[in-house]
Specification:
By secondary structure, this protein is of the alpha/beta class. Helix content is 43%, strand content 19%. Strands 3-11-10-8-7-6-5-4 form an eight-stranded parallel β-sheet. The relative contact order is 0.14.
Length: 334
């Protein structure tokens, strides 16, 4: 982060991240599986951030990727994957590399087998981590950008480390290593104050999910967005019950932060009993997901949703966050 602006007191949000990605603002939207499509990625990139398409479990049809990258057009975007899913569908990584993305983001699994292929295509590798040990590992494996995600984050993430202490610990580790790798903070960040705080902690930018979930371009049903806006951080919970219902094979130290509902109230902490009742309960879950019954179906969202008040265009979200961060940091440097 560079302080100072010609003509008056102010700050510039230029960082190692903005320089590496050649963007104006150090803001990335989380690549939410199937929800973060080409329109959202393009809108964020057009506003000066860096858009990411949500490849998720790599289980979308080829036509989905064709369409979303076509919608993104000539905007410089990337794509994010759940790493362990690529071990089952490596051909999807080949497919996406064929679109010439600027970066591929890998989360929740061993990134090492995929990093060489990505870098051979002159594509940057973004690795999301949830501990200092994981950060050290991906740094040694060749990650170009590291995302340190705390437990406050919506969706899947680690269960042990919070954003506020994890980010500076990773920043110090990177500095001590001698590597010039940008660090991105994630988890509990939904406005400009969060961006400013992340920069003060040593991050070079932020990855934000929940605030972009409530964007016009997000490929999520309107009722789900409305529930996020009407809820608060106290209404969220970290749980693995939806992973059980969907047979998602996440590592044992990873679960999801979701809005509480009747399904979590009934089964969180009773996972063994849920498995015993799986024939009935899993069918009930999938029926609810298909019909949009969010008293049963999941909505992944983070603790920072108290700060989200309306569905907005993604570009407006980026612009507002930048204004807020610049104002907060200007006060700090006066």
């Amino acid at each position: 982060m560079r302080a100072g602006r010609e003509g008056g007191v102010g700050v510039s949000l230029r960082t190692r991240l903005t320089e590496m990605l050649d963007i104006r603002h150090p803001i990335l939207p989380a690549p939410i599986s199937s929800g973060s499509g080409g329109a959202l990625a393009a809108a964020v990139s057009a506003a000066g951030g860096f858009g990411l398409i949500g490849g998720g479990l790599a289980d979308q049809p080829v036509e989905w990727f064709d369409r979303e990258f076509a919608i993104a057009g000539n905007r410089r975007v990337g794509c994010g994957f759940i790493t362990w899913a690529l071990t089952r569908r490596p051909e999807v990584l080949d497919l996406v590399l064929g679109y010439s993305p600027l970066a591929i983001m890998l989360s929740f699994g061993n990134a090492a087998p995929f990093i060489p292929k990505i870098k051979e295509c002159d594509v940057l590798v973004i690795c999301q981590v949830h501990s200092l040990a994981q950060a050290r590992a991906v740094l040694a494996e060749g990650a170009d950008i590291i995302v340190a995600q705390g437990t406050e984050a919506g969706g899947h993430g680690g269960i042990r480390r919070a954003t506020l202490p994890l980010v500076p610990a990773v920043a110090d580790m990177i500095a001590a290593s001698g590597h010039n790798v940008p660090l991105v903070a994630a988890g509990g960040i939904a406005d400009g104050r969060g961006l400013a705080a992340a920069l003060m902690l040593g991050a070079d930018g932020v990855l934000m999910g929940s605030c972009f979930y409530a964007s016009e371009e997000m490929l999520a049903p309107a009722p789900a967005k409305e529930r996020v806006i009407a809820s608060g951080g106290d209404d969220t919970i970290r749980t693995g019950v939806f992973d059980l219902a969907r047979a998602w094979d996440f590592p044992p130290d990873i679960n999801g932060r979701v809005l509480r509902n009747r399904f979590t109230d009934a089964w969180h902490g009773r996972e063994a009993e849920l498995l015993a009742a799986s024939e009935h309960e899993f069918a009930r879950y999938f029926a609810a997901a298909a019909s949009g019954d969010y008293e049963i179906a999941q909505i992944h969202t983070g603790e920072a949703i108290d700060l989200i008040c309306a569905v907005e265009p993604a570009g407006a979200i980026v612009e507002r966050i930048v204004r807020e961060a610049e104002a907060a940091l200007a006060r700090r440097f006066i």
